[in-house]
Write a structure and sequence with these properties.
The protein is of the alpha+beta class. It has helices at 6-17, 21-32, 71-84, 131-154, 159-168, and strands spanning 36-40, 45-48, 92-94, 102-109, 112-120. A hairpin with a 7-residue loop joins strand 3 (92-94) and strand 4. Helix 1 (6-17) packs parallel to helix 4 (131-154). The relative contact order is 0.16.
Length: 180
């Protein structure tokens, strides 16, 4: 994958030189030329890019980071996953939610599902984004999300306490942390 644009170079720099998921998401948004969000497996928004002026507040700005997707949206995503079979195999196009279409792609690291990348169609039609750019962003965001989760997990008092806390809060849903 050639890194032939400054946006792609900045995306990789953000991944390699920071532990800031928000910065990586901002750079991913610049590569795709649309707003981007990272959603974990429990449907919680972990990071999202800034809101362009053209985005309706209800579509993007109205959902703060840390908020969970509403049940209707989760049901739509689950229906899409069921219709596509394996959610990791291909991107999914989500329509009928707000004024803009969304492209969802699974974020997977070491064969462990971590969550979704969501690109909101605002500045550029989703089809105009190259598959190469989507693949680069997907892989970078998966790595950034895995690092984010590992850092959050290891910053807790102890592994057992962290696992129990995550289980109690219904947030622990991957095996990636056990592989470390």
């Amino acid at each position: 994958m050639p890194l032939n644009t400054p946006e792609k170079q900045e995306l990789l720099n953000a991944l390699l030189h920071t532990n800031d998921l928000h910065l990586v998401v901002e750079q991913a948004s610049a590569v795709l030329k649309n707003p981007v969000a990272v959603i974990d497996g429990a449907s919680q928004t972990l990071a999202k890019s800034g809101t362009p002026r053209t985005v309706p507040a209800a579509s993007w700005a109205g959902k703060p980071e840390g908020a969970r997707w509403n049940y209707d949206l989760v049901a739509r995503v689950n229906k899409l996953i069921d219709s596509h079979g394996n959610p990791r195999s291909q991107p999914m196009l989500l329509t009928g939610v707000g004024e803009s279409r969304r492209r969802l792609e699974s974020l997977v690291q070491d064969d462990v599902f971590l969550g979704f990348m969501c690109a909101l169609e605002v500045e550029t039609p989703l089809e105009e984004g190259s598959e190469e750019n989507y693949a680069l962003v997907r892989e970078v965001l998966a790595k950034a999300l895995a690092m984010h989760r590992a850092l959050r997990f290891h910053s807790r008092a102890g592994h057992a306490e962290g696992i129990l806390t995550d289980l109690f809060n219904n947030r622990f849903n991957d095996r990636l942390l056990f592989r470390e």
